[in-house]
Design a protein that fits this description.
The protein is α+β, with helices and mostly antiparallel strands. It has one domain. This is Acetone carboxylase.
Length: 97
Amino acid sequence: MSLLHPVPDSVDELVCSARRCRQAPAWGLLWNNPKLHTPQRRKVWLACDEHRGQLEEYLGVRDFLRSTVPVEDLPRVVDGAQDADEPAGPSAGGAHP
């Protein structure tokens, strides 16, 4: 995969990124803060169906949201290593609004 095209970070723990939510995610919210990240970088927040709208709104208001994809389409960390042909980057997770 070319580094000229946006590439999402690989995900590890598949848990919704909303604060205190422990549900399995159905969606990957791909975002980028242009003040901090290169244009092709796509950070990932994971969202269950219940929190998808809330997390998309939070990122959208800041003009960080780039796209939303099914979680099955995201590259995964396998045995502590990224999928082949994926650039290095932190895994998704952590508590968000």
